[in-house]
Write a structure and sequence with these properties.
Elements lengths: L2 H22 L12 H32 L4 H31 L13 H27 L4 H16 L20 H30 L1
Keywords: Membrane, Transmembrane, Transmembrane helix
Amino acid sequence: MNETLARRFTGTAGVAAAAALILEVPLYFVYSGAPPDSNILSRLLVGIFSMGFLLVLVTGLREIIKTVHPEYEWAGTLAFAAGLAYTTITLVSHGLEAGDVIATEQPIDPTITVHGTYILYGSISRMLLALFLTALGYAIARTGALPRWTSRSAYVLAAVNIAFVPSLFFGNTPANFYAANGWGTTALMGAVLSYWLLAMGITTLRSARTARAR
């Protein structure tokens, strides 16, 4: 793929993924108690779209890294693999949660563990996202494919995600900040990721001009 086209493609996907996540996260805070089915299904639907755009993003980033510096294609591939695993795990957890909502007539009580989805949303997702961010940060730092701040911020965000991996030892109450599916582990981290993706998407779009000049 042409480098300019790849950057535009990737940047657009990043902005779209960020927009979907920014729309999704507030839906977790609308109700203080058990949310109605409509709220759960709405946020899951938005989340499904966000993961689709994220999958396009990680694919495009690998293409950019391979084009700019083929020697570090392995790092781009590692980032792609981790990003793919993250989106898959998130989509699986979305599917499990949606299936439980559809199968019952009563809203799901968020204090009840449902088929271990809190582990998928929490520790597993945090680990995979940290791996993706670390590999991406390294690839960007070594290739200069994007501005330096993108690499440094990826490392910082990776460290924050790692810090939430042990949250599975602290229960599964969404109202708690540091819990397997607590609002810090899931909703807050989703919000941070969304704005980072927005900045990354805009930066990647702008970098298409430089690529075209080369």
